């Protein structure tokens, strides 16, 4: 056997190129869609109950922003699980679409809200280059979604309010987003990881290592 042939046989077999860390897999799309549909149903339930839930805030409507964080949940939750660019925006927008298809009192406008709230969460994960997914980043993502919700709803629905009321609503929506959507999503991911439901994702593996 020639030395050239011997060297050729000693070379390791080339391995198939690994998919990029940010490339979506089929399982990512499926799970993100399931998360979005589930939270979309939650959005619809929350919307259907809004009139009753907001009664205690009738004397000071801007305080009702404390309840709005639930509508920001899909974005942070999807991003914490999938950990890929676009996950927050995709999940929040799809969840809003599901709630619109079922039927809400705000009609197709919820699609605009879903896009804006998803963008608010997405920008936070982008700020950390999609490399940080701890509790602090989750809370910031929820806060970002809540902030975008507060500002956009002041433009779309609360235009007749005084600036002070609009400012209070933006703050209460931001706080609600940070707690209900950000912290809430982080706790949900921890619970799902503990059950083994996220074994195919880095979110499941990292949660078990803590």
UniProtKB/TrEMBL annotation:
TM annotation in the entry: 26-46, 58-80, 87-104, 110-130, 137-157, 163-189
Protein origin, superkingdom: Bacteria
Keywords tagged on the record: Membrane, Transmembrane, Transmembrane helix
Pfam name, any one: ABC_cobalt
The protein's name in its UniProt record: ABC transporter permease
Organism whose genome encodes this protein: Sediminivirga luteola
Lineage of origin: Bacteria, Bacillati, Actinomycetota, Actinomycetes, Micrococcales
């Amino acid at each position: 056997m020639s030395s050239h042939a011997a060297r050729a046989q000693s070379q390791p077999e080339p391995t198939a190129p690994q998919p990029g860390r940010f490339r979506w897999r089929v399982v990512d799309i499926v799970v993100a869609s399931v998360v979005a549909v589930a939270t979309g149903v939650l959005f619809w339930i929350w919307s259907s109950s809004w009139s009753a839930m907001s009664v205690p805030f009738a004397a000071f409507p801007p305080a009702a922003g404390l309840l709005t964080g639930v509508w920001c949940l899909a974005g942070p939750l999807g991003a914490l699980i999938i950990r890929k660019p676009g996950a927050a925006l995709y999940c929040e927008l799809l969840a809003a679409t599901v709630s619109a298809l079922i039927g809400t009192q705000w009609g197709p406008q919820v699609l605009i809200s879903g896009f804006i709230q998803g963008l608010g969460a997405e920008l936070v994960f982008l700020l950390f280059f999609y490399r940080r997914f701890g509790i602090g980043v989750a809370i910031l993502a929820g806060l970002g979604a809540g902030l975008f919700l507060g500002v956009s709803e002041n433009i779309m629905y609360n235009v007749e309010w005084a600036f002070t009321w609009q400012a209070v609503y933006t703050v209460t929506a931001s706080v609600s987003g940070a707690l209900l959507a950000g912290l809430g999503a982080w706790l949900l991911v921890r619970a799902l990881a503990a059950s083994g439901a996220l074994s195919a994702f880095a979110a499941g593996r990292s949660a078990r290592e803590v």
